[in-house]
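User: Sequence recovery, please. Input:
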């Protein structure tokens, strides 16, 4: 079976039954893949829609596509997981963005905690967005993950109350805290969204774990081995998505 390519189309370039591919996407279609008018291609808009269309024209700066059908929430999880991740070294965080996008993470909130090794790092949002967009096309999702700039643990904690579920990956678990255990799925009780806090390799501070306890977080224990921050983020996110999610069926 041949590899299926997805092209990213700016939602502003979709009008009624026509779409335009510009810049890098146009170049990839016309110069790299050498597609021709009459070929059928797949487009994703980053907002949750997959389009099937036929190339009608390939110009010097843009390609025109006739849209023939569309599928909402293609490749997307019904459960939306936000990963609030303490930012490790740049290359490792970029790896997490790529792999997290592939497994279905809906949003990445870059976090600075008290024990973070990169306290002053602001992050390159534009580069992070390019990485997630590329991963989106590779894995066949239609919704581009949200990326938030680096913020403090306390600021992100203040926004966590709006989520159906709240988890923090940390051990040892404070006495009296809620411990999350994975259970058989029950459609009657499935939450719509959740936020997962993952700290640096040195973990969260006692003050931060106490705040999480006070804000009714469930604690996740990922085992006896000490994981790198980005590994812990990917493992915990995978487990939670497996617990709550089913993907939209490709059409």
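Assistant: Recovered sequence (251 residues):
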């Amino acid at each position: 079976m041949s590899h299926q390519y997805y092209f990213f189309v700016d939602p502003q370039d979709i009008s009624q039954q026509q779409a335009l591919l510009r810049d890098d996407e146009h170049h990839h279609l016309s110069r790299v893949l050498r597609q021709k008018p009459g070929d059928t291609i797949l487009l994703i808009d980053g907002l949750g829609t997959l389009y099937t269309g036929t190339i009608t024209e390939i110009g010097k700066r843009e390609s025109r596509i006739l849209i023939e059908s569309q599928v909402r929430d293609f490749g997307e999880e019904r459960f939306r997981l936000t990963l609030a991740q303490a930012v490790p070294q740049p290359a490792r965080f970029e790896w997490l963005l790529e792999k997290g996008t592939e497994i279905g993470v809906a949003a990445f909130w870059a976090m600075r905690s008290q024990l973070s090794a990169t306290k002053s790092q602001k992050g390159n949002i534009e580069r992070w967005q390019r990485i997630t967009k590329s991963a989106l096309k590779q894995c066949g999702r239609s919704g581009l993950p949200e990326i938030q700039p680096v913020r403090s643990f306390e600021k992100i904690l203040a926004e966590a109350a709006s989520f159906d579920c709240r988890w923090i990956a940390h051990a040892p678990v404070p006495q009296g805290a809620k411990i999350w255990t994975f259970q058989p799925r029950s459609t009657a009780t499935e939450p719509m969204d959740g936020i997962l806090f993952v700290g640096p390799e040195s973990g969260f501070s006692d003050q931060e774990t106490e705040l999480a306890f006070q804000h009714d977080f469930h604690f996740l224990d990922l085992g006896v081995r000490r994981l790198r921050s980005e590994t812990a983020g990917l493992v915990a996110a995978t487990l939670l998505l497996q617990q709550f999610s089913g993907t939209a069926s490709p059409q």
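Residues 6-72 form a domain with the Ribosomal Protein L25; Chain P fold (CATH 2.40.240.20).
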